[in-house]
Amino acid sequence: MRPASWCASLAVLFLSLSSPSLVLARHARSTDPPLRTSAWSEVVSRDRPEDEMGAAPHLNASAVATTVVLNSSKFDSGATCVANGWTTVDLTTQTGDWWHVDVFADAPWGGTSTPAGITFSPIQGGRSMWMAAVPPTGPVNTVLCGYAALPGYGNGWNQSFCSKACLATSSGPTPDLDVAFKLKFDTEPTYDGTVLEYTTDCTGNTGWTEIDGGWSGAGTATVAASYPVGPGPVKIRLHFTSDTSWSNQDGLYVGFGVAVDSLTWESTSTEGFEAEPVGSHSSPDWQSCNTPGFGNYLALFKRTTGANYEDQCLQNLGCYWAAI
Length: 324
Fold this sequence. Notes:
It is globular, with a radius of gyration of 27 Å. The protein has one helix at residues 49-52, and strands spanning 14-17, 76-77, 80-81, 87-90, 99-102, 128-131, 158-163, 177-186, 193-199, 209-216, 218-227, 235-241, 257-265, 282-283, 286-288, 298-302, 319-323. It is mainly beta. Strands 10-9-12-7-15-14 form a six-stranded antiparallel sheet, with no helix packed on it. The chain has a five-stranded antiparallel sheet with strand order 5-6-13-8-11, with no helix packed on it.
């Protein structure tokens, strides 16, 4: 699908750190067939018996006129290291905080519902907390530049909406966690969706355990339930995840995302988000709480900085990229 007309094409060359392990290139598996590079590289003389005996075949040289050098960078410039236009990015960091209060009234997208029939409107009242990206109305947002269809959600999203407080669960023979809310959702069935989770980690953002959910595909849900999680204290969150394809980003699935309203738990007041400003990521008892990325540790180093190779027999006197 062609990208939306409001955004120009953007091409970026970058080195990426997607995990503690640095990956600079993808190598073909041993079972992969050889990639065809060009016609000249496979011209082999058939009257040479040594080729059939396993010797390397003779490859004709490429004509200079057919060779185009797109980029050549040694990253050295005198006594300094120069990036030569390359940049780094931590792909474990979310591209944005997409939970926000919305009135769904000033819609620049010109539509009223998704193909699945989920309307772009609050769940109830005039506002809801919505997890989705909308087309920018001002300067072009480079993050959303390649999205095929907005509003909606993207590939590889990992978005959370959490309670601010850590509360004890209700008393009784079996301490239960009482939660209620209304949900509207439209995501790729099975692969993208929302769950309800809790944790006893009151100071961090770890140890989350799923207690309800599987809200995927297109539909609505009204939850008013008690969950046997122990005495607590605990925090809760709505946790949305999407895989690496089929979303509004690539246009293979055009969805609404997910919205929540009438949200309460234990002793907190029911939150309808009616008093919160449009675009807000929080309310008195709730806030977006996305897990931070691993960190961007990829940088240019040179021998004089002390970043030597572990192999004492190998020395690089120039500049090189490393994740340290």
